[in-house]
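Give me structure tokens for this 89-residue protein.
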Amino acid sequence: MVSNLKISWLKTKNDTESFKIFQNLGFNVYNLEEPEKTDEKIQELIDNNCKTIILSNEIASFSKDIITKYKKQDDISIIIASGKNIEKD
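Here you go.
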């Protein structure tokens, strides 16, 4: 049986590096122009049956209560992607 798994990624509009490969492959990567509306976008995705939401570390800092609200639910996964710190010589 194939499940209807919906995954979405969220990042700020100015973030050109996070989730680039997924965006190039045509996955649902949303660029939020107003990071303050992170909770609203997460709720919208959940209302549209999105079961896994991956947030850039930066955008996660704008979520006030949604991450906590869904933290213990088995049917919704909200994941915060860790950022990369690459040092250049």
